Each structure stands twice: as structure tokens, then as C-alpha cells.
Amino acid sequence: MNTPPRVLFVCVKNGGKSQMAAGLMRDIAGDSVDVRSGGTTPGAALNQLSVQSLAEWNIDISEGSPKPITEADLEGADLVVTLGREAKVHAPEGTAVENWDTDEPSGRGIEGIERMRMVRDDINDRVRDLLSRLTS
């Protein structure tokens, strides 16, 4: 029996981008990928605009909560994906790490739900690309 690849999505607070990436991957990959997420310095709550932007696509991440990444998370991952430049991880030797320097519309003056939809769309494209690489 083949075990699915385990992907760990990491951002600083684990309240927005990494939760969105995990929710999107679970939605499109189902059981074909073991998905985890965590933060380097977890916040207190999910970003409600992140939750809302995925709810628009009928993806519910509202029951999630920010959590720290652990050594076990890093050791168990086949791939660690950091979202944004701020999240730094020290994955065990042999564990693949890639960084997604995601779109940041706020740098262009775009805020609120419009900003989050653009972030969601960027992460969605990256998740779909990752899934195709994992399953090819």
C-alpha cells in the first residue's frame, strides 16, 4: 500500500495563507495527499477574510485554529512549503522545502476581501501546480 505524500504548509501565524493552502489542497486532492499546516509563531485566531474567501468556493476552514509547527511535523513531511518570506523553517536533511512568495495585493493598495480573493487565487494556482507535480 502506498502512503500519500505528506505536505506541511507553513506561514508565520498559521491563521491565513498556510490554512488556505491546506484547505485548498484537501479540497482538490482528497486523500491523495496528507496535508498539515502550522505556524512559526502562531496567532490567536484564523484570519476571517481567509475563511470567507474559501467559503465563497464552498471550502470550510472555519473549524481550524492556528498551531505551531513541531519537530514531528517537520520530520514527517515529504515537502515543507513556506508561504511568504517571513516564515523560516529548519527541515531535517533530505526533506524538500520550497517557498511560495505569494502575491501581496496590499502592496498595491488592495485591501479587505478583494485582497484576500487575490491571495486565494494565487495560492490556488500554486496548490494545483504542486498537486500535479506530486501525482505525476
Automatic annotation (TrEMBL):
Pfam families: LMWPc
Matches recorded under InterPro entries: Ptyr_pPase, Ptyr_pPase_sf
Protein name in UniProt: Phosphatase
Species of provenance: Brevibacterium aurantiacum
Lineage, broadest ranks: Bacteria, Bacillati, Actinomycetota, Actinomycetes, Micrococcales
